[in-house]
Amino acid sequence: MPLEFRYDDDDFYFEVDSSRKIDSKFDMMLKQKWEDAMDKGYFRYKLNFLESKILEGKYGFVAQLNVKRAVERRKPQTVSSINMPFDPKLFNFTKVKEEEILFYVGRNNEDEEKSGSANMIPHCLLINVSPLEYCNSLLVPYINSCLPQCITEGGLQLAVEIVLLSQNHSLKVGFNSLGAYASVNHFHFHIYYLSSKLYLETSRAKYLCNGCYLISKYPAEGFAFQVTGINCKKMVRMLNKLVQFLKDNGIAHNIFITRGSTFEEANEGITPAVYKAVRIYVWARKSSYGAKNDEAFNPALCELAGHLPIKNEKGFSQISESQVEDALYQACHDTFLAVKERVEELFSETN
């Protein structure tokens, strides 16, 4: 019987220490199972050490050299639309080896109708066999339902709750839509820990309306939300409203979820010792179909947030803040401008 991690609201941490890495029961289970899988050789390569550096400049972009991921990862599936249906003939996460399953995760009162098995939680955590960072895993909501790589409100709620289960401020969760560098058309999120802090953890944001903010003075323009102890479900509903708008209009998008200061604190210039918010960033961006290019990096969920897995040594040695700024700007600017007013109208209509 696969291991399970069941939880209730009492297991959530709405405030975490921003200066120390403290592990919750969830963190300890994830780390133990992931490290055990690494020791047993279940990954395509060992991830013992990644050469890293902080780029000089305003944004403190985190560059990491990860040549093996670029070379040894599974070939991405061919994509022609962000709304492609699930194809059972192609690789999907129901076909992974048993040893790649870390554990199942869900609420104690989880609806089990979609699990395909009595009394089994339907959501699964798998190792990413080509890891980009420490504990890089794949969260697959309703794994046996074989959903395409399109966000659902229930999946969003689960992703936010995974962050709330962690007491470690360095846990990150993210999503790539099809056309935004998702490589498998089966609904999933990426999870990993990043020891370096990111600019977007404490950056300012401009209030738009109804809980939606604009990413302010940052090269990847987009939208932002914050979850605190009192507004989790409401913010997930608002976030889902935006994502469904992007999906319905065929607009590729990336999502990044991280602990951080509240936007109110950031806008007042306060850098707190305790992170009181979960920040959720959404980028509507230029679509990218076909094979990934040979550039040093492709702007997906990590890169847009300022974490840059670099594919080759030349790119790692030569990369600069201005180069990154340009790549992020090119990925997002035109699409952001095209949807900004429509998104404002969307949220102005929301009660």
Indicate the low-confidence ranges by residue numbers: none
- What's the helix count? 8
Radius of gyration: 19 Å
* Sheet/helix structural class: alpha+beta
The amount of beta strand, in percent, is 15-25%
Instruction: Indicate the overall shape.
Output: globular
Overall mean pLDDT stands at 92
**How can the largest sheet be summarized?**
11 strands, mixed
Distance linking N and C termini: 45 Å
Please give the order of strands in the largest beta sheet: 1-5-6-7-9-8-13-15-12-11-10
How many extended strands? Answer: 16
Percentage of helical residues? Answer: 25-40%
Order of SSEs: EEHEEHEEEHEEEEEHEHEEHEHH
The quaternary state of the protein chains shown equals single chain
Could you characterize the architecture of this molecule?
This protein is α+β, with helices and mostly antiparallel strands. It has helices at residues 25-39, 67-72, 153-165, 232-248, 263-267, 301-304, 313-318, 321-348, and strands spanning 4-7, 16-17, 52-54, 62-65, 101-107, 124-127, 137-140, 171-176, 189-193, 205-209, 212-215, 223-227, 253-260, 274-275, 277-284, 307-310. The strands form three sheets. An eleven-stranded mixed beta sheet has the order 1-5-6-7-9-8-13-15-12-11-10. A three-stranded mixed beta sheet has the order 3-4-16.
Structure keywords:
single chain, alpha+beta, 11-stranded mixed β-sheet, 3-stranded mixed β-sheet
Outline the fold blueprint.
Blueprint (H helix, E strand, L loop, with lengths): L3 E4 L8 E2 L7 H15 L12 E3 L7 E4 L1 H6 L28 E7 L16 E4 L9 E4 L12 H13 L5 E6 L12 E5 L11 E5 L2 E4 L7 E5 L4 H17 L4 E8 L2 H5 L6 E2 L1 E8 L16 H4 L2 E4 L2 H6 L2 H28 L3
Parallel strand pairs: 1-5, 4-16
Antiparallel strand pairs: 2-14, 3-4, 5-6, 6-7, 7-9, 8-9, 8-13, 10-11, 11-12, 12-15, 13-15
Helix pairs in contact: 3-4
